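Shipment paperwork, digital attachment
Item: protein structure file
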Amino acid sequence: MKIYKGQLQQSLSTKLSIPKKAPKDKRVTIGAFQNFGSGEVRVPREGEGSFDVRLSVAINSAAGMLSEESRAHLKMRRPLSQFGGEFTSVTATYMEDGQGGFLGLRLQAFEQDNVAIGEAQLFEGTAEVDLRIQQTQTQLITMARPSPAGWPSADAPATGWTIISSQDIPVPNRPFTLAFGAQGLMKKATFFFDFFSFGAALLGPELELGLFHDLAGAVLDLGQARDALIAEPADLDLAEDELNDARDTLVAAQSDLQKAMGADNLDETTQGKLAAKLFKRTLKGAGRLIKTLEKGKAKKPAKLMKPAQRVIDDTLVVMANLAGMKTTNARQITFVTPNP
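Attachment content:
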């Protein structure tokens, strides 16, 4: 099983306190910039056969959370058929007690048309859970558990899973795709995601996986830089630091890709030549932003937001080509999509 990059900094407490400064290797986040926001991260490549996909979900603040409405999900999609509908998801919903205090996360499974299946479970006092969907040869099962200490190290327990739903569905002869996301978020509400892993061939071989996740880290750094530029007041030092970190990651990934292409080590579905070409555009855009900040020419930092977003979009395009999607257009990629 492949564990995606990212390490838990500390176990989130039920006090739901906000850290003063996020860790450098911050987890993937989906947050709302306005009321009733939602977002989803979709894996571009399709998989086939049985699988075992897992994801950790956490909150660290009650801000913007609506009891019984704000939820995160792990989702598997298939074409419509007689077996269970178009998608199956397992969700973690924010819950409050009668006095407005944090109660815990409610775990529930859904299928097509958001029809609830199985039996909902309440994990009281738990702000961090692991979600799981497993397709065996004979069954489709959704599970959840409070995240154990040390996960996903080899010392972490493999037990503790509670079955949310179990359906007698043999492995369909159709592809599937995976996604995770959040919905029902008011302004400032945020879910944190990490340790996305699966026991199925989906994103491609190990080499592409490593490049893909390195670039995902660069996207997080670029997002931090963009947010620093539009903050009031703007934090130009932070923006420059994050941009330099992102550029270093991009340069290293570009070098690894060139070596892999020279040795003919890429999977046949990987769009290596196009990714290599797009790398140049991405690095050029990042370099221009850094030079502007170094020379102190950012008199109106907010105007740099669009160029920063273009670098993010260009990086996502490179990632899409590494995952087998031939494209030069960021609009064709669903990574994080907030409500309009």
